[in-house]
């Protein structure tokens, strides 16, 4: 029996979210998985055809040992049909959700959480971002096996940046419409910003560097640190996007590390523990402290973090963490 990874991809998009999904497909293909993609971003009629005819036709002609579904698939009808067809063919097939986002964690709505848990209980296991997401799901009553991914791998086609010179420079990459803290960021050091939806009237310390594809962007990340922060405040990460950092693995963390760039991350973020334990960056409580923290890093200390980051970059580029997770299914 073969193994399969199922993914929904929105045609015409080339974003970090799509990059995370396509990287997983590519890494799993190296592990012998075949790939099946669906496009739920279609009319109601085409969605009916997809769920009622195409998916049964495509998936019911063979048995699978393991099926990894990249969650969420933005059509519950399509998702449930996929699971039903696979279960009907063989009850021995292990079906696993590899979690990208949990809507209930973002919305904090009890109704959304309860509904999503019912979807999670349709499968055998979950691959979750980190131990904090695992603990949250257990606190909500989820009892099935969960596998800790630790961090997303990143298939980075650019050379790893090996410049060890320390000048206290920082970069930030992301969709800038939700990074409202940047509008208030007044520092002595420059923060080089990359991504779409750049706002006008940026502070002098925020320097916009343009927008690039996920594959090209690493070539431009020459700064000493990559910043992981979200929400409207400089004092802490709050709001829907900021609070979500307590549980999720921002994909930009993998972008930075796979490029050889050490991390500066909110100390209460889920990934802060990974950064500290692997010595690939530093944590920060308040962005108003950023100047002092950058000034306190010695060239010798930076070289130590940089070398650790380069070693971790090689792991992320090889699909190390995903491979370890799927072996645990």
From TrEMBL:
Domain annotation Glucosyltransferase 3-like C-terminal: ranges: 170-327
* InterPro entries with a match to the protein in the record: Gtf3_C, Gtf3_N
Q: Does the keyword Transmembrane helix apply?
A: no
Which residue intervals define the domain Glucosyltransferase 3-like N-terminal in the entry? 5-151
Q: Which UniProt keywords apply?
A: Transferase
Q: What is this protein called?
A: Beta-1,6-galactofuranosyltransferase
- What species is this protein from? Ligilactobacillus agilis
Upper lineage? Bacteria, Bacillati, Bacillota, Bacilli, Lactobacillales
